[in-house]
């Protein structure tokens, strides 16, 4: 982790500790923990706190201020401790327990229970379907999805739904996030937990669900490692990404098929 990123984290921890007044735990999650981060990666921080109505406005204002001061790169998720036991938050538990870095406050990870497959698998499927809805603006549970924008070279998958540093307007981060959620849904259906994007692709590759396991693994490595989450600027690279986008659409519909069976 470079000095600039560490400074962003240090400033965030200091600001959050002040507003939480000793009533919260702070964790780093995502690509800066598993060392898969690149220059376009978000900085993901999770705060677990003992909710106090009188502090809620100040906590939210601090979260928004930190995001703005980082140029929208710092993504702070604030979760009341009481919500960790709810089914709707079961998706977060593997990330916290298995693939996070404790930054401040009491470390709660030893108290966390990994969710059972009966609650975890449906939730991970719904997260994948929800991302499909955001991309396609159609309901994937009623039929196959079609390209978000068939007239686009990348079928509309390059649509910007997340942070990119100026002047970059689009990249492959959304595509990778969508593919990781589809992979995670398959992994969860097989009974495993998914701590993060990289692990979703690794675990799905081991499942041997061909040809999609190989596609997803290669797609992730090219986008994250070789292209740095940016749209490739060479004709060959752009043609390769176009092919990947066609495969991504097929991968989504493969998941829809699996749900129907």
Structure description:
With 261 residues, the chain is an alpha+beta fold. It folds into two domains: 3-111, Beta Polymerase, domain 2, CATH 3.30.460.10; 117-260, no CATH class. The chain is 52% helix and 9% strand. It has nine helices and four strands; from the N terminus they run H-E-H-E-H-E-H-E-H-H-H-H-H. It has a four-stranded mixed beta sheet with strand order 3-2-1-4. Helix 5 runs antiparallel to helix 6. The model has no long low-confidence stretch (mean pLDDT 93).
What is the approximate shape?
A: globular
Helical/strand content category? alpha+beta
Order of helices and strands: HEHEHEHEHHHHH
Largest sheet strand order: 3-2-1-4
The main pleated sheet reads as:
4 strands, mixed
Alpha plus pi helix count: 9
Helix content: 40-55%
Average pLDDT, rounded to a whole number, is 93
Uncertain segments are none
């Amino acid at each position: 982790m470079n000095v600039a990123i560490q400074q962003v984290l240090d400033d965030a921890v200091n600001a959050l500790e002040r507003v939480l007044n000793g009533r919260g735990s702070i964790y780093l999650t995502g690509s800066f923990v598993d060392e898969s981060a690149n220059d376009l990666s978000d900085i993901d921080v999770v705060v677990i706190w003992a909710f106090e109505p009188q502090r809620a406005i100040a906590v939210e204002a601090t979260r928004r201020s930190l995001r703005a001061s980082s140029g929208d790169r710092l993504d702070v998720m604030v979760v009341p401790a009481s919500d960790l036991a709810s089914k709707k938050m079961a998706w977060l538990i593997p990330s916290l327990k298995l693939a996070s870095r404790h930054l401040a406050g009491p470390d709660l990870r030893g108290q966390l229970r990994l969710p059972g497959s009966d609650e975890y698998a449906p939730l991970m499927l719904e997260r994948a379907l929800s991302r499909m809805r955001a991309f396609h603006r159609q309901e994937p549970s009623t039929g196959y999805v079609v390209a978000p924008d068939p007239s686009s070279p990348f079928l509309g998958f390059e649509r910007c739904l997340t942070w990119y540093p100026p002047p970059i307007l689009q990249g492959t981060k959304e595509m990778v996030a969508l593919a990781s959620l589809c992979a995670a849904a398959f992994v969860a259906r097989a009974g495993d937990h998914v701590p993060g994007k990289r692990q979703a692709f690794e675990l799905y590759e081991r499942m041997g669900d061909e040809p999609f396991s190989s596609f997803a693994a290669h797609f992730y490595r090219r986008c994250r490692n070789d292209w740095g989450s940016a749209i490739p600027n060479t004709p060959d690279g752009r043609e390769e990404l176009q092919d990947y986008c066609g495969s991504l659409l097929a991968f989504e519909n493969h998941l829809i098929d699996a749900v129907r069976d």
